[in-house]
Amino acid sequence: MKLEFWYAPVTDLSAALALYRDTLGWEEAWREGELTASLVMPGTEVQLMLDAHNAYVPGPIFTVDRVADFAREHGDLEWRYPPAEIPGGQLGGFADAAGNVVYVMDQADA
């Protein structure tokens, strides 16, 4: 597992980019259409993923080889967001003991 992103849902991607990119000076790493963008956060390899789909709650996203394998190996986890297809792979999120969501994703099909 490697921490890859901090997931932050936003209501307005343009407004979020105005803050993080334009005001704070964080570099835009990539963008997927007009609803999702990722920014390089200073002092770390972890990126901030801004997403206006509003499908998930905030939390860390860890990359794994295959989400389906991770889910099988950790069947006792409380999957708040069962593994689902995303562009290039899968994403799922489970709750920790305090109810915080931890995401795992892969790009196995990319």
Characterise the protein shown here.
Strands 2-3-4-1-5-8-7-6 form an 8-stranded mixed beta sheet. The two termini are 18 Å apart. By secondary structure, it is an alpha+beta fold. The model has no long low-confidence stretch (mean pLDDT 95). 16% of the residues lie in helices and 46% in strands. It has one domain (2-106): Roll (2,3-Dihydroxybiphenyl 1,2-Dioxygenase, domain 1), CATH 3.10.180. The chain is globular, with a radius of gyration of 14 Å.
Mean pLDDT: 95
CATH superfamily: 2,3-Dihydroxybiphenyl 1,2-Dioxygenase, domain 1
User: Do you know the CATH architecture?
Assistant: Roll
Give the helix/strand class: alpha+beta
Look at the structure and give the CATH class: Alpha Beta
Main sheet: strand order: 2-3-4-1-5-8-7-6
Topology, number of strands: 8
Q: Categorize the overall geometry.
A: globular
SS strand fraction: over 45%
Largest sheet, in brief, is:
8 strands, mixed
Taking all Cα atoms into account, the compactness measure Rg is: 14 Å
Which stretches are low in confidence, meaning pLDDT under 50 for 5 or more residues running? none
Q: Number of folding domains?
A: 1
Determine the number of helices (DSSP H or I, runs of at least 4 residues): 2
Percent helix among the residues? 10-25%
Give the helices and strands as they follow along the chain: EHEEEEHEEE
The N- to C-terminal Cα distance equals 18 Å
